[in-house]
């Protein structure tokens, strides 16, 4: 393909342009525009990353040290890392999770390291709405600056919907932990934030909520709810001094992901959260970690059918591997 300086157009000497004729010029222009737009998006992603390094993140939005942060699902992984990183900023921490012994251990560790107060609330989020009157009573009257809706539940391993063991109970557990918890905890904490005209709500979703993930169907759908819920609430309450962010990690090395080894694209929970906190107040919806942003950028640009197909292949492989391990244990 050559450029003709006399006409200012691309010469249609190639076989492709020979077939397309003059319309080939329009395709060339569209191609240039597409590549330019793609390059611009990549550049903006990199610029946002650089800005996040200089941006104060959550620390810049906390103007009342000594107030409280509430973190659900806080005894392991991402939730524990959020509790620790926020305590480091000087906020007292309310820890809400299922296992009391783990709660006590995390609370003791945080008080010792960061010299802040802690309070624990034992709650099993699979129990639906029964747990929230107690949580509401315990939090009543507290000056809460930050709410981290982190508690999450996924599949034991990827599986077709109709083949999920104890399917209907599992579905309700997934909905109660991943959806009901976000709506109810926000309902409990947000009124005080609006009254004080200050507060930050961090809703931990997943990249699987950005595109459908077959064989994790209910989990993926629940995480999509978190994304829409966060977006709508920010529109409703942003003018009231409230910052609501949806965080969408890809794989992080945690007990939930069953990944132990870290890498550039699979960070530790601590590394991930430290990065994600820098985006608070800068990005309303974030992948939280620069390599994940690159992955998310690629996912958003590729056709949906291709993403779903590749996801299906990956989940089938993971499912087969998990079932082999189960069989080996039985033998």
UniProtKB/TrEMBL annotation:
The chain crosses the membrane at residues 26-47. GO terms for molecular function: oxidoreductase activity. Its main location: endoplasmic reticulum. Keywords: Membrane, NADP, Oxidoreductase, Transmembrane, Transmembrane helix. CDD domains: 17beta-HSD1_like_SDR_c. Signal peptide: none annotated. GO terms for cellular component: endoplasmic reticulum. It is found in: Endoplasmic reticulum. It holds the Pfam family adh_short. It comes from the Eukaryota. InterPro entries: NAD(P)-bd_dom_sf (IPR036291), Sc_DH/Rdtase_CS (IPR020904), SDR_fam (IPR002347), VLCFA-Steroid_DH (IPR051019). Belongs to the short-chain dehydrogenases/reductases (SDR) family. This is Uncharacterized protein. It comes from Sinanodonta woodiana (Chinese pond mussel).
């Amino acid at each position: 393909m050559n450029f003709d300086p006399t006409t200012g157009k691309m010469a249609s000497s190639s076989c492709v342009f020979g077939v397309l004729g003059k319309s080939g010029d329009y395709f060339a222009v569209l191609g240039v525009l597409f590549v330019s737009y793609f390059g611009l998006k990549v550049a903006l992603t990199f610029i946002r990353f650089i800005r996040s390094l200089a941006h104060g993140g959550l620390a810049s939005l906390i103007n009342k040290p000594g107030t409280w942060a509430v973190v659900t699902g806080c005894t392991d992984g991402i939730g524990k890392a959020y509790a620790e990183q926020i305590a480091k900023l000087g906020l007292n921490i309310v820890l809400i999770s299922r296992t009391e012994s783990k709660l006590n251990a995390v609370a003791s560790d945080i008080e010792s390291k960061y010299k802040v107060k802690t309070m624990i609330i034992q709650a099993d989020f699979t129990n639906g709405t029964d747990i929230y009157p107690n949580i509401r009573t315990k939090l009543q009257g507290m000056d809460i600056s930050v709410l981290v809706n982190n508690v999450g539940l996924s599949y034991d391993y990827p599986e077709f919907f109709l083949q999920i063991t104890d399917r209907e109970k599992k579905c309700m557990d997934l909905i109660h932990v991943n959806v009901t918890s976000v709506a109810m905890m926000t309902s409990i904490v947000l009124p005080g934030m609006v009254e004080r005209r200050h507060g930050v709500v961090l809703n931990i979703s997943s990249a699987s909520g950005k595109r459908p993930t077959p064989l994790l169907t209910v989990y993926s759908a629940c995480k999509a709810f978190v994304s829409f819920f966060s977006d709508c609430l920010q529109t409703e309450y942003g003018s009231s001094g409230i910052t609501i962010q949806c965080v969408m990690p890809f794989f992080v090395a945690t007990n939930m992901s069953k990944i132990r080894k870290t890498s550039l694209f699979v960070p530790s929970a601590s590394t991930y959260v430290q990065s994600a906190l820098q985006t608070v107040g800068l990005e309303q919806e974030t992948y939280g970690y620069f390599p994940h942003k690159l992955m998310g950028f690629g996912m958003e640009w590729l056709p949906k059918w291709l993403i779903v197909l590749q996801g299906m292949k990956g989940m089938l492989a993971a499912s087969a591997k998990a079932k082999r391990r189960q069989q080996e244990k039985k033998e």
